[in-house]
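Appendix B: complex inputs.
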Amino acid sequence: MCLALPAQVVSLHADGTATVSLGGLRKVISLALVDGVGEGDYVVVHTGFALSRLDPVEAEKTLALLRDAGSSRGADR
Amino acid sequence: MKYIEEFRDGDVARSLAAEMAREARTDRRYRLMEFCGGHTHSLWRYGIVQMLPPEVEMIHGPGCPVCVLPIGRLEQAIALAHVSGVMLCTFGDLVRVPARDRRSLLKAKAAGADIRIVYGSADALRLAKDNPGREVVFFAIGFETTTPATAVVVKQAAEQGLRNFSVFSNHVLTPSAIDAILGSPEAREGRIQVDGFVGPGHVSTIIGTAPYERFAREHRKPVVVSGFEPLDLMQSILMLVRQLNEGRHEVENEYTRAVVREGNARAMALVDEVLELRPSFEWRGLGTLPDSALRLREKYAAWDAERKWDIPYTPVADHKACACGEILRGLKKPTDCKIFGTACTPESPVGSCMVSPEGSCAAYYAYGRLAKKRPTNDL
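Resulting structure:
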């Protein structure tokens, strides 16, 4: 039920909806729950609604942290 | 797909597992509850459970809305579907959950009731617009993740004067369920011991991480809000191991790319405008809990299916052999249930935890029923 996936906004529509791309699959979703989303942004989509905007800077920070755990101390295992 | 594949790198996962094995102390156990059923499935689907050191045990929580919905509410939905002119819209997994005498919405549909499976609340609203001569009822379930989508369509129906649309609300609250687990008789007697929580990621996109601060403080349990990809979960479990090693009990956020401490203010305001607390609500497994669920406010009574039709609620006991209740409280594992995988399978389920794609029985059946029992360290 709480399944949600990151999707990229392809185009915005006048009625508060947007077309998003989920790995190439296109779908129209509602932006009623989020503010200031633009084309090219990634949003977390659940049952046809964007729940939040995906922060690319934070995503990169988390990935760096994970890779760090992988390379610096885990590489010799 | 971006923001998915990077978080599934097997080499990084193995490094995180090695790091966890190094940091986990062998003289203690780490009993961690993942609240959310989506996390339960990720843990099994990606083989994370088998990568954890023997000291780390995952206890599956009640965060599966289909699982916690009691039979009595399902019976009400079946009754609504039989009201003349009603078209009942709901999510796909819900139609297969057994009700009284092994009835279900799917069987009611086969017998002629108009029951539609929808992807979301907006589809139900559209059906109401397209079928002005019908009474379209949206059978709404879900934790805080799903509630805002219901609030939006109720508001839209009111603004558009769409009187043939209504909602049968079964929305429930995450903090109430955590309270019920920590305050249960089993927890007081020490039969369930939870050292820390993997907090739900998508619920937290809405409510933020602040509501868990009370649990961390009062119960002295660390909480790490986690994303759903395998590396997210590995990292979150490692963060919990570290907190426990250092004697900390804080709320930490692993899922920073989608969750902020304050949550989604716009979504929470919409929910508050349309819905209010119910004085009490029955949950499967957790019993009747005060202020644990939401109903439509008086202002939106015209769109409330429970006010539109008087369908009384009668509690119905679970099937005698079904252990869903104890599984939802973290007291039993699916494999402890006598009928798991025999009388109860995804094709022919007895309990809700075997039906839902978030249920722990369904996860064990799909990914774990042939797995070797993990060595546990008996401390």
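The radius of gyration of chain B is 21 Å.
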